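U., I forgot to send this yesterday:
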Amino acid sequence: MAPGKSSRSLKTYPLQSRPSKVHIRDFARVSAQRPTVEHLIRDLPDILAAKDFKEFLAILTGARDKRKAVIFGLGAHVIKVGLNPVLIDLMKRGWITALALNGAGIIHDFEIALSGRTSEDVASQLKQGRFGMAQETGKILNEAINAGAEMDLGLGEAVGKMIAGSSFPYKKHSLLGAAWRLRIPATVHVAVGTDTIHFHPQASGEALGKTSLKDFFRLCSELENLEDGGVYINAGSAVILPEVFLKAVSFVRNRGVRLENFSTAVFDFIHHYRPDQNVVRRPVGGKSRGFYFIGHHEIMIPLLAAALRSHQSSVVRRRG
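Result:
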């Protein structure tokens, strides 16, 4: 074929006749006034993750208005990056109806309440055989868990009760202490051997198992209120909480509870297999939607909280 002949026979069409994925009506907007958080969210482009984020905020607002469950499953990293004050504020404002933590979460929450600091240098401590050897952390947490088992409490209740009733100088920064005071269910889901407190002398496998199993069924009862608009959020847990959530959904459905119309979301700084499969994809029903937001917790969670507070304030202003 002679050069140029193939291009002369090319069949084209007018650009305006072609379906396109992006339209200028979906573009970001630049506010003419000094932007508030409300303006920032409103002016995000209606494209990809920004569109999803705005949709998710609307879903959260609907869940709160309908008094449906809004459950936050938190990995310990969320606590370590300083977000307890943000989460406690959301709890007080009614945006969080229940918490679920992994075992590491209680360690950092406790250390913050007791000493105002947490998160040791694992690499250097490990080389010296000192990683996880803080006396108070192992002793006091295990004693609280053992006492909780005797009182037939869940693990989250046991630790929250202990922190709330303590004289710890920084207990106002504790998630579990706040949950106990606010009467918000807080469950803790452990895998034996994953947490440093498990090798301290006071550790009891019986107490850990009893209190954490009680928390599993407590979480299942909270999931029942997801139907018809509730939300489950997994933030910063790559394995434990996604696995717990999947089994809890299966258990609840097996008991005859419909879970078809609820939403899930993952907030993490990379894309993980289990959160994607066990939170965003597999559990959702025919009327459900799953979201995956990638970004640093110390940015994304405060942004989410600010957007929710901004919406709440604007509703109060309109009603006023």
